[in-house]
Design a protein that fits this description.
This protein is mainly α. The protein contains four helices and no strands.
């Protein structure tokens, strides 16, 4: 069994840990974020990496943000949302 760790870190360190979780089979993390701006930063960067670097399918189930806002935020980070929505890589 792995070790449990509680850490209080900045959003870049949290992002690094989440991205590591994506490439490590069986690793899970619980993330408590201080505000929605931090959450937005995390999900935008995770989605961007999953699509562009790992060529993964992304399922986003929004609760705090409207779908149109998420799509616009993804576009603002340089992701060609229409290409990925249509499945053209």
């Amino acid at each position: 069994m792995g070790t449990d760790a509680t850490r209080y870190v900045d959003k870049d360190s949290i992002l690094e840990d989440v991205l590591e979780t994506q490439t490590t089979y069986g690793k899970h993390s619980l993330i408590l974020y201080s505000d929605l701006a931090d959450f937005r930063y995390l999900y935008l960067n995770c989605i961007k990496r999953s699509l562009q670097s790992l060529n993964e399918i992304v399922l986003m189930l929004p609760y705090y943000h409207a779908v149109t806002d998420i799509i616009n935020n993804l576009r603002n980070t340089g992701i060609d949302v229409d290409k990925y929505k249509k499945g053209r890589l």
